[in-house]
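Entry 14. Structure prediction run on the chain below.
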Amino acid sequence: MTDLTADKKIEYREGVELSIPVDDGDKIYAGANVCVNAAGYAIKGGDISGAIFMGVSREYADNTNGNDGDINVLVMRRGLFKMEFATAISQANVGDNVFLADDNLVDVAGNVTYDIFCGIIAAYMDTTHAWVDIEPAIKQADVASHIADPTAAHAASAISIADAGLFTAQTQMEAAIQEIYQSLLTAKGIIPIPMPVITEAGVALAAFVNADDPLPGFCVTAKGLGIRWNNHATPTPVGTKAMVPPDMDVAANAVLHILAAKTGATIGDATKFTISAYNNVVGALYDADADFGGDTDAMTGDATAKTVQHVTLTLSLANLAAYPAVIELTIQPKDGTLGTDDVIMLAAWIEYQKKLLTS
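Output returned:
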């Protein structure tokens, strides 16, 4: 760059009118709306992808048999123009943006496809005519181009991101947005299930007693707190409840998880847990729901004694109730799966799909 060392002769034009080379094969009538195409040549205006409005033709220009730029067309780029609308307008449209319908007609938003911005309604005349100020469109031709061609350089896939915090490995906006939405749409939530304190019949649990008894009790062994059942053919179920959270997506399955350990390693004691599940829903009778529980998958019978094992049961989306609601559960080792070993339930929870909050 070189600074001036003497006065400079300035070349200047008002810019009210401009002569533009015409595209090959185009015919532009006087009074027509004029655009330029991606190559920068004048074409008759219209609802055309990628076109940029340049003004109103002051003259007839026929380049039907010519090459690009063989002739020019003079366009007016400032002022209020009486324009005809393709659909009815009213006084309430004053101030609205105007877009090209073709080289003769214009329209308001929602009635065109590519939104080729050509001005603002300055004054209402009648239901099909208005005075349109085209200068805002001339000054914002780059914006009009962006609106008309969302797949070009302004598309999300072409916008880079700085990511100063190093939160993502993505380098452009489209990929980063996809990464964010993938995370949002697959995020999981957890409902901790309170450790039961009563049986399904309402009997309060006490400390576990090792006996030929179906009644479970609290296991108070160091590092093994939980509910323990004796090796009985028909163990007594325990009961508990868990609140459905506001962000639970009941249009997706949920999964009940149980961590448990057996006191022995009897291969035949491939213990399952039988779950009964009911919803308490606002506005419904508290005992109206049908059982939507079932059996978990089986523990490994001959795993080393005291080994913590993980079993699950899918709760079908067809049976889930939205917040505010409560899930009532009864839990027991499945009848006939505790022949020799005792089993301790160490923890239980429900894993759910989080819904995408929209408000």
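The mean pLDDT is 92.
Filed with the rest of this week's runs.
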